[in-house]
Amino acid sequence: MGPINGGPINLAGAELNHASLRFATLTAAILEAADLSDADLSDARLDGANLARANLSEAVLDRVDFAGANLVNADLSGARLKEARNLTQSQIEEAVGNSFTLLPPELTRPQAWAGKVSQVALGRRAAPEQRTSASPTPEAVSWLVGGPRPPMQAANANTPQDDPQDA
C-alpha cells in the first residue's frame, strides 16, 4: 500500500473486478496488471496512474481523468470511455480493445480493434435448427427458481374438489 501521507498507492495485480470505485482518487497509483474488469470507476482520478496490462474490460469509465496514465497493453475490451477526460489517441493506440469499446467521439478506433460483432450482442439468436438439443425448452425451465418444472399434469388432477354431497 502507499504511504499514509497520500502518496501513490500500489495495487499492482490486485483483484478488483466488479468493484465500485466511483470518485476514487488514484492519482499516480500503480495498478499494473490489476483486474478491474466490470468495475465502476466513474469520475475517478487516474491521472499519472500505471495501468499497464490492467484488465479494464467491461469497466465503466465515465468522466475518468486519464491525463498522463500509462495504458500500454491495458485491456479496454467492452469498456465505456465515451466521456473519459484527457484520454489521447496515443494512449488508445497502446491499449487493447474491441468493437464493443465505446470511445469518446474525438478519438478514432485503432484498426487492430476491428472485428466481427457477436450475433448475440446484436440481439439475434441462432435459428432453431442450429440450437443444440441439450438446451432446455422454455416450458421446462422455471426462471423464478432456476430449476426444472415438474411435468405438466392434467388440469385439476391433483386439485381437491369440493364434493357436493358434503354440503
What does the model show?
By secondary structure, the chain is low in regular secondary structure. It has a single domain (1-120), classed as Pectate Lyase C-like (3 Solenoid), CATH 2.160.20. The chain has one helix and no strands. The chain is globular, with a radius of gyration of 25 Å. Mean pLDDT is 79; it is low at 117-133 and 135-147.
Summary, kept brief:
By secondary structure, the chain is largely without helices or strands. The protein is built from one helix and no strands.
Summarize the helices and strands and which ones pair or pack.
Elements: H1 89-94
N-end to C-end Cα span: 78 Å
Global mean pLDDT? 79
Contiguous runs where pLDDT drops below 50 for at least 5 residues: 117-133, 135-147
Order of helices and strands: H
The secondary structure category is little secondary structure
Task: Based on Cα principal axes, name the global outline.
Answer: globular
Q: Quickly count the domains.
A: 1
Name of the level-1 CATH class: Mainly Beta
Helix content: under 10%
Strand composition percent: under 5%
The number of helical segments is 1
Can you tell me the CATH architecture? 3 Solenoid
CATH topology-level fold name: Pectate Lyase C-like
Largest β-sheet summary: none
Specify Rg, calculated over alpha carbons.
25 Å
What is the count of β-strands? 0
